[in-house]
Design a protein that fits this description.
Helix 1 runs parallel beside helix 4, helix 2 packs across helix 3 and helix 2 packs across helix 4. By secondary structure, the protein is an all-alpha fold. The longest helix is centred in the last third of the chain and has 23 residues. The chain is built from 6 helices and no strands.
Length: 108
């Protein structure tokens, strides 16, 4: 999911509904300056305020959580955590030796 510009979302919703900032504020029970600050990105609304503003413009805010692909293989981390400290040391020493051997081969 891309970054969500909440202010732009509210502005677009308000404009699609044909409302002024003042009209949206009245319907949502807030002030026009508060709507202006949110739309311009000066302040961020609470989820409750976002819901009120969206509903006041005839739309519903829908939030969702999605996993982030960090590129990290969590199964490898879990496997490492199951090892004892001595096992981790032995595994990493072997890895380091392999890397050093590859570098020697590249240099020759």
């Amino acid at each position: 999911m891309a970054y969500m510009d909440v202010g732009a979302l509210i502005r677009r919703s308000r404009e699609e509904a044909g409302l002024s900032q003042r009209e949206l504020a009245q319907r949502a029970g807030t002030s026009q300056p508060a709507v202006a600050k949110i739309e311009s990105g000066i302040t961020s609304p609470t989820v409750k305020t976002l819901e009120r503003l969206m509903e006041a413009s005839g739309q519903r805010a829908a939030l969702a959580a999605e996993p982030i692909d960090t590129g990290v293989d969590l199964t490898q981390i879990a496997a490492g955590l199951r090892m004892t400290p001595d096992q981790r040391l032995a595994a990493n020493t072997g890895f380091a030796r392999g890397v050093m051997e590859m570098r020697r081969e590249q240099d020759s």
